[in-house]
Amino acid sequence: MLCMKVEIWSDVACPWCYIGKRRFERALAQFENGEQLQVSWRSFELQPDAPQVREEKLVALLARSKGMRPEQAEALVAHVAEVGREDGLTLDFDQVRGANTFLAHQLIHLAGAHGLQDAAKERLLRAYFSEGAVVSELETLVRLAVEIGLDEGSAREALTGGTFAEAVRADEQEARELGVRGVPFFVLDRRYAVSGAQPVEAFLEALRAAWSDAHERTEAGGEAGAACGADGCDGPS
Hints:
This is DSBA oxidoreductase. GO terms for molecular function: oxidoreductase activity. Pfam families: DSBA (PF01323). By secondary structure, this protein is α+β, with helices and mostly antiparallel strands. It has nine helices and six strands, in the order βαβαααααααββαββ. It has helices at about 15-30, 60-65, 70-85, 100-110, 115-130, 140-145, 150-160, 165-180, 200-210; strands spanning about 5-10, 35-45, 185-190, 190-195, 230, 230-235. The strands form two sheets. Strands 2-1-3-4 form a four-stranded mixed sheet, with helices on both faces. Strands 5-6 form a two-stranded antiparallel sheet. Helix 1 packs across helix 9 and helix 4 packs antiparallel against helix 5. The chain is globular, with a radius of gyration of 17 Å.
């Protein structure tokens, strides 16, 4: 039986990654061979040198980093939040606490070792964007780990000991080799690439094309969707 691999490079502190995840899930629900896909989440830190916790509010940070006026930054954030609402998500940017995501990525790898990777990714995104959780804090991550079904002691040991630190770095190195510049970035069967939070229809079309062409190398084209990069996140198109 043909089984197709889908790899998604993504960060926790990326609104378009959350939106893209939800849209991809909707496409997956419509895809005729969805049960034969193996989906894995790969690590990508938008700002690997970010402090453990940012005290600066998101709008102020965005205005400073992108050279925007405060009202421009507020409008951009409001638009992204509205796009999220249209996809059934709550993006509460007033609560968002910017943080380093290296440890959160290690939790995703730990969860993957127990068949809970998607649950960890979903829980982290909701905690970050909807609940104002600081996803760099050990105790926060241990709590989230327990919520998705991981053992508290094992999670604490893995996170404090850096058990999956090299796995995160390996994902990021592979992203560089693939030329990934922003996330989310979807790789289908190592033949097709889909960049950004594309519409559901675009994801579905790519899945069907990759599936039917599973044994023939094809380079995907098309315009990139909204994404986040080292310099910040795009506004909605």
